[in-house]
Design goal:
Elements lengths: L8 E2 L2 H11 L4 E2 L20 E5 L9 H13 L6 E6 L4 E2 L5 E2 L3 H4 L4 E4 L3 H16 L3
Parallel strand pairs: 1-2, 3-4, 4-7
Antiparallel strand pairs: 5-6
Length: about 140
């Protein structure tokens, strides 16, 4: 976090204030849904694998449906190899139109997505150093 490679974010003002009080760190407000931003084609992205953890059960209010769409876009652009997503997605959830959403088997079998069904506390060992960086305040 000191290198500013991690952005702490919250969906609501209340959550933002609580996280700032708890962590003593700045927290960005990302209300759902947020406007999609396009990177320029000249954007420079680090060559190493980018791990994107998304702790907390998948749900529409959290934007898990948008994240799944973004993963699909990365896959269609042959850019998915640059990423590994860690999602807490134990079961499908309902979208506002009543349809159920879950990751496609294609994504699950791609090796670029790890799905967990356990509560967050049980995931600590799976996140390793990244988990420690996110949840340890020095």
């Amino acid at each position: 976090m000191k290198a500013k490679k991690v952005i702490l974010a919250a969906e609501t003002e209340g959550m933002k204030k609580e996280l700032e009080e708890f962590t003593k760190l700045p927290v960005e407000l990302f209300p759902h849904p947020i406007e999609a931003k396009n990177l320029s084609t000249s954007a420079k992205i680090a060559p190493e694998l980018i791990t994107v953890p998304c702790p907390g059960f998948a749900r529409h209010e959290k934007g898990s449906d948008f994240l799944l769409s973004a993963i699909g876009r990365l896959n269609s652009e042959d850019s998915l190899d640059r990423f590994h997503f860690i999602l807490q997605w134990p079961k499908p959830f309902l979208l506002p139109d009543g349809t159920k959403l879950k990751p496609d088997k294609e994504f699950e079998n791609s090796g670029h997505i790890t799905l967990y069904n356990e509560p967050l506390g049980d995931m600590k060992s799976h996140f390793g150093e990244y988990y420690q960086a996110l949840y340890t305040v020095s």
